[in-house]
Amino acid sequence: MQLNFIQFIVRPACVAMTYLVFIATAHPQSIFDSLEQELNGLNPQSKNHLILSTKLAKEYAETDADTAIVICNQLLTLCDHLKVDSLKGQVYIGLSTAYGYLAKYDTSTWYSYRAIDIADNYNDTITLIDAYNNIGINFMYQEEDEKAIEYYKRVESLSRAFGDSLRLGHALNNIGIIHGYAEEADQELAYYQLAAEIFKEINELEGLGNTYLNSGTTYSSMKQFQRADENFAKALEIFRQLDFSSGIQNVILSMAENELGRGNYRKAEQLALDALDIAQENQLTQDIIFTYTLLEEISLSSNNYKKAHDFLSKGNSLKDGVFTLEKNRQINELETRYETARKEAEIEQLALANELKDVRLSKARFAQFATAIGGGMVIVLLVVFFTLRHKKQKAEKEAQELQLEALKERFIELHTSPANIAVNLDLSELNGKLHNPLTEREFDTLRLTLEGKSNPEISDQLFISVNTVKYHLKNTYSKLGVNNRKEAFQYMLQVDQG
Question: Is the overall model pTM greater than 0.70, yes or no?
Answer without folding.
Answer: no
